[in-house]
Amino acid sequence: MGTYSVLLFTSTFVFVLLVCSVDPSCVHVWAFGIQMLWQTFWHLLIQYREYYLHEPVCIRLFLAVSSLMLLTQRITSVSMDLQEKRVVLKFGAASSREACVKLLPLLSYTLNFTTLLGGPLCSYSRFVSLMADIRPSPPPNPPRVVFLKLIQVLLLECSRYLLVYFLKHNIYDPSSSFILYGALWVWGLSVVLRIQYYSHWRISECLNNAAGFGFWENSQEDSPDWSRLSDGDFWTIEASSRIAEFARRWNATTASWLRRLVYMRCKRFPLFMTFSFSVWWHGLHLGHFVGFWTWAATVKADNNIHRHLRPKLSSTLEKTYTFFSWINTQMIVACVVIAVELRNLSALRLLSLTYVGLFPLFNIILHILLKLNKFY
Q1: Of 208, 209, 251, 363, which is the active-site residue?
Q2: Given 179, 242, 286, 351, which is the most exposed site by the fewest CB atoms within 10 A?
Q3: Out of 112, 200, 282, 303, which one is annotated catalytic?
């Protein structure tokens, strides 16, 4: 990150000062506010350079801001632990040496590079217990597990390369291609973008496993379980037949963090507020607003539609319903991913030209009709 690593050190220094000087019941409010303002400043600076000055942004800055987002997760996770008294850090009459000893685990957790570069989020208590439990006889050696996961990454990247090759040589042309091909082309593009995330998460798992993280000591299975620190598995997530189910499984540790930080603390419109905060946390691009608000609306619609239709289906129709529900989920996810990843108006034009944007719209309209039918 070069000089941009100052972004992370500044956040950590300010957070440590807050932990030492602010009452634990108030530290979360201060930590959350300062950290989000600091992160938002850099997100807006990137947008200013990209869209107003039309300057190329240094890749080191992108990397630093990406890590800053993950650092925000970690700082707010600890601040909530302090607020809820799950973690107790007292510095009252401690000497400077004792204070430093107490701060070392916090600094180690905050700046732990194995999860700072790509996640996933691990709780402070879990991290400290892993460090405290290090013994001369370590957990089973992870090289075999790491190797197998790297093979999975290789297969994912090969699949992504083949898909990119196909999409480049078969560009969708609205004037000469039929509608179904356009929808399939957009779906293929969204799969390419999603595979990047799956590969990234698997590489992060490998890095953490190689360092000894992610092992579940109480596992009763024959083979050691190294999957307890993961953001998601390709087959599990992609098999989701409901958009609400997909939302819970996608980027699992971040989803759990958002649920704890926003959803469980909001008394009014928790779902909308959670996805709105996700827009803020991701960087406030136009595509983020469209993508995450569409996602929120379709999750709400999915819960209502599923609650009304599922009990009325016979066992023979249930499999057909699940299949079409899976297709519906895939197309809605395609809309969300295209909007969030492309970030600008080009994504909206692509979704309108291929009519893929009709899928979330249909779900929202059906949700409204079911609500009206309930009242009348």
Answers
A1: 251
A2: 179
A3: 282
